[in-house]
Amino acid sequence: MPQKLFTIAAVPLLALFMASCSSQAPQKTEVKKEEPAAPEPVTGQTGFFEMYKLARNWAKDLQGLRINSMNHADVKSLPGKAPIWEAVFVSPERREMRSFSYAVTDFSATTRKGVVAGPTSPWGGPKPGAKPFETPALKIDSDKAYEIALAKAGDLAKKFGDKPVTFLLEQTDRFPNPAWRVIWGESVSASSFSVFVDATTGQYLRTVR
Questions:
Q1: Pairing with 15, which of 29, 78, 87, 190 sits 20 to 30 Å away (CA)?
Q2: Are 104 and 42 in contact (CB under 8 A)?
Q3: Which pLDDT score is estimated for 34?
């Protein structure tokens, strides 16, 4: 074949080869980065057991003494749920008590996401208004306690519905089991009223103003 004809015939073949290679080249796909989920409030049991796991490293004989919730403007609380929970544990063997906190995100230099252990201090033993409780006694979660309290609050809940709701769990001589105190207000001293719910049985106990 003459050189000129060979060259003319080769050009379409080369173009076809290049087009084939181009169509088979892998396509780059853009990977969209997912936005991190916004922090959400949790129930009292969730926060308590997160703290309990770390507290077990401090004392194997630990018992709960108090659980309380904290509200924060950066993460809105929901019925029976809060962005921050605090707990106090005691060790009868050590005669010590220790506070812990659990937060769903970083709120400050001292309130960090996850569990933060506080310092220990001497514990003088059970008192009528502050008795330790065993972990299995905490069967009713804070969201369920809120439902029960709200149903019993009636017109009071409507009257003070704009108040923030906080939670306190303690074992006292007032009731046979540890009890949730559902508080319409930021604290007991600043509350409009509160409702007690048995944390073991879920029974409504009392409404106080």
A1: 29
A2: yes
A3: 73
Enter the tokens of residue 151: 């149903």
**Contact by Cβ (8 Å): 87, 47:** yes
Q: What is the pLDDT of residue 27?
A: 62
List the Cα angle 186/196/153 in 5-degree steps. 80
pTM: 0.83
The Cα-based distances of 17 to 5, 6, 11, 24, 43 in angstroms read: 19, 16, 10, 11, 65
Q: Tell me the mean pLDDT in the region 27-42.
A: 78
For the chain, the domains span 42-208
Q: Cα–Cα distance between 100 and 98 in angstroms, integer? A: 7
Report pLDDT for 7.
46
Q: Whole-angstrom Cα distance, residue 195 to residue 179?
A: 10
Q: DSSP for 158-190?
A: HHTTTS-EEEEEEB-TTSSS-EEEEEESSSSTT
Q: Output the six-digit token pair for 84.
A: 């921050």
Strands 96-103 and 84-91: antiparallel
Q: Token digits for 86? A: 């605090």
pLDDT score at 20: 54
Give the pLDDT score at 135: 95
In angstroms, the CA 137 to CA 68 distance is 16
Cβ–Cβ < 8 Å for 79, 143: yes
pLDDT surpasses 70 at 12: no
